[in-house]
Amino acid sequence: MWSMDISAISRVSSVTSSLPHQAKTRSSFCIPKPWSFNCKRSSAPQLYKSHFVTCSALGDENSPLGLDVPFPRDYSELIEQAKEAAELAFKDEKQLMEIEFPTAGLESVPGDGEGGIEMTGSMQLIREFCDSFVTSEKVTRTRIFFPEAKEVEFARKSIFGGASFKLDYLTKPSFFEDFGFFEKVKMSDRVKPEDETFVVAYPYFNVNEMLVVEELYKEAVENNSRKMIIFNGELDRIRSGYYPPFFYPKLGALTKTFLPKIETIYYIHNFKGRNGGTLFRCYPGPWKVLRQLNGKYVCLHQQETMPSLKEVALDILTSTQSFKSLL
């Protein structure tokens, strides 16, 4: 069994991976020994002790919040929760789904970890998730798309070594790779008739990757019974306008044509600072804004639709900054 402690990963002060044009190469990455997050598997759903305090800073005080799904204590519980969320979403015939959470620690925020290490962390967690979620008879019908061909090669030699999942890629390097250019792959040529489920791994380092994901959805998922899960795709960059529409019109258009079709089935986004907190969702439950007080997660607010990160940071969390005095 592989072993790893994410909290022990060294940090770097410059996070160049957040730049829209940043190209990625495995040659510059630290390749650690094979890992595991010590995820425990069980044939029956495991019940966890709730970490919530039953109270509400906003809304009807007679409506208890936060009792259905506890915030995970570690990545083992996170994988179990994400698996159960995916199972319920599949039963509800959801076709296009998103799983998003930090890989540099459950309380980390974007930029806390170095890009290459975060990708490798996502790769390991995808392996853990697929091993738990995908049944043995569905393994060869599950195709996992990595951002580009070199990433598939790395996966086969390390974390996905010996696995029966179909490994594939969205783009492949071109002659101008160092400038962030990659050759587009025709998705209809990659898909096989027996494919039932697609897992798309962290398609965020190159702006073209998410455009290819949309193409994959349109050509191979939208008009049939296949399912697609986008795993740690950092879709919030597109939702928040991180990529200026003037320079990235096709990417900006996804907020109207593609993103509204996505069901976010598992999600964790942390906010640091004086009014810090966490936006959390586990399908089919509501969206919750949490704050950690005295070692427990308190649910400050919940709603059925996803709030914007700006709304959570500037409205919800600031409106509940005096909540600690109420406990």
Descriptive report:
- This is DUF1995 domain-containing protein.
- Residues 72-313 form the DUF1995 domain.
- By secondary structure, the protein is an alpha/beta fold.
- Helices cover 27% and strands 20% of the residues.
- The protein is built from 8 helices and 11 strands.
- Strand 6 (197-201), helix 5 (207-220) and strand 7 form a beta-alpha-beta unit.
- The longest helix is centred in the middle third of the chain and has 19 residues, at 115-133.
- Mean pLDDT is 80; it is low at 1-68 and 175-179.
Total number of strands: 11
Q: Per DSSP, what share of the residues sits in E-state strands of 2 or more residues?
A: 15-25%
Q: What topology, given as strand order, has the largest sheet?
A: 1-11-10-9-8-2-7-6-3-4-5
Overall geometry comes to globular
- Residue stretches low in confidence (pLDDT < 50, at least 5 long) are 1-68, 175-179
Domain DUF1995: 72-313
InterPro entries: DUF1995, LPA3
Protein name: DUF1995 domain-containing protein
